[in-house]
Design goal:
By secondary structure, the chain is an alpha/beta fold. It has one domain (34-360). It contains 14 helices and 12 strands. The chain has a 7-stranded mixed beta sheet with strand order 1-11-7-2-5-3-4, with helices on both faces. The protein is globular, with a radius of gyration of 23 Å. The protein starts with a helix and ends with a strand. Residues 1-20 have low confidence and may be disordered.
Length: 361
């Protein structure tokens, strides 16, 4: 009791050193458990990304419109003018920030699941690459953490290589969100943006494309090992046209972050999902994770299951400006075989059985 009173007296005295020493004298019972505090920070770091991705763009758009109706209209006008001038920046390599990519919040994000990045082969800075990322999952947590931040040490593991995670172009039409995404080196998944990175930005570029896209997200569920790839050949043709090597990437545990209600083909709900996917560019999934305060409740916080991302062996691709369908099919088959070998080699190390197979849809 005397210790507590002395500490309280020290706090009231006012100097910084006395306050610090007084706080250090407090019994440990007054401080929260370190592990619990870290877990709370991890949850907050993941939740801020989920909420930002879902609502930041829309919220900032509405705020900008509202500001035009207030005394702050000049600020809104200046930002809108800047938005118009800066409109094409996402298509021209973006505006990455090493400071943002190295934020401490991303280490808490990484440790929540946790997320790991495993390198299997060296990549040459004298070449450009297209990474095919599988599977999509709901939010591509593994793709974002590994390639949109430095939390898992991508630049140290692959020196001289600059990763650019490609996502929906519509995100870059929304104020503030576009800048937030660009700061992590994220770019639009469209022809102009990828062409710039692979043709007019030197070498050492790695464009990360989530090949399955929105269609694949409709099928993701815990324990499911299926990728939408059979008819996805555009990224292979692009690699041939630019002479960029193909690198298969598989994330074990990506589908385990959320549980999703899977509607059967032919049902009204499935038809609605596909219709909205064509209109919006993404698939509205009905999913849930755990609650913010109680782990056994439902919420948008993802389940803390490990996600391990394996970067496979690069497939050397020649530069052919106008590749024939036969050539595209050949390298597409090579890519599928390489991805299946990658999956089979590492599956038993990360919770799967020897009998588990990767389904190519």
């Amino acid at each position: 009791m005397k210790t507590i009173l002395a500490a309280y007296s020290g706090v009231l005295k006012g100097t910084g050193s006395s306050i610090l020493s007084a706080l250090q004298d407090l019994p440990l019972v007054f401080w929260p458990c370190r592990s619990k505090m870290e877990k709370h920070l991890q949850v907050i770091s993941v939740l801020q990304w989920v909420i930002s991705f879902l609502s930041m763009g829309v919220a900032c758009t509405l705020l900008l419109i509202y500001m035009f109706c207030t005394d702050c209209w000049l600020i809104a006008a200046i930002y809108t003018a800047w938005l118009i001038i800066d409109w094409n920046t996402p298509k021209q390599g973006g505006r990455r920030s090493s400071w943002v990519r190295n934020w401490t919040v991303w280490t808490y994000f990484r440790d929540y699941f946790p997320i790991r990045l495993i390198k299997t082969h060296n990549l040459l800075p004298s070449r450009n690459y297209i990474f095919g990322y599988h599977p999509h999952g709901i939010f591509c947590f593994g793709a974002f953490c590994n390639f949109g931040t430095e939390a898992t040490g991508f630049s140290k593991k692959f020196p001289g290589i600059r990763p650019s995670l490609a996502t929906l172009a519509g995100n870059f039409r929304l104020p503030v969100l576009r800048d937030y995404l660009m700061s992590g080196g994220i770019c639009p998944v469209n022809r102009h943006s990828i062409d710039y990175l692979l043709s007019r930005n030197g070498t050492g570029n790695a464009v990360v494309i989530v090949v399955g896209g929105a269609a694949e997200s409709l099928h993701c569920t815990p324990g499911m090992n299926a990728v939408t790839l059979k008819n996805r050949k555009g990224f292979v043709k692009l690699a041939l046209q630019k002479g960029s090597d193909l690198v298969p990437v598989y994330s074990f545990g990506e589908n385990d972050a959320y549980k999703q209600v899977i509607f059967e083909e032919g049902t009204w709900w499935r038809a609605l999902q596909k219709r909205l996917q064509k209109i919006l560019g993404f698939a509205p999934c009905l999913f849930h994770g755990c609650g913010l305060f109680f782990g056994n409740s439902w919420g948008i916080v993802p389940f803390c299951n490990p996600i391990t991302t394996i970067v496979g062996e690069p497939i050397t691709v020649p530069k052919i400006e106008d590749p024939t369908e036969e050539i595209v099919n050949l390298y597409h088959a090579m890519y599928i075989k390489s991805l299946q070998c990658l999956f089979d080699k590492y599956k038993t190390r990360f919770g799967l059985k020897e009998s588990d197979v990767l389904y190519i849809q």
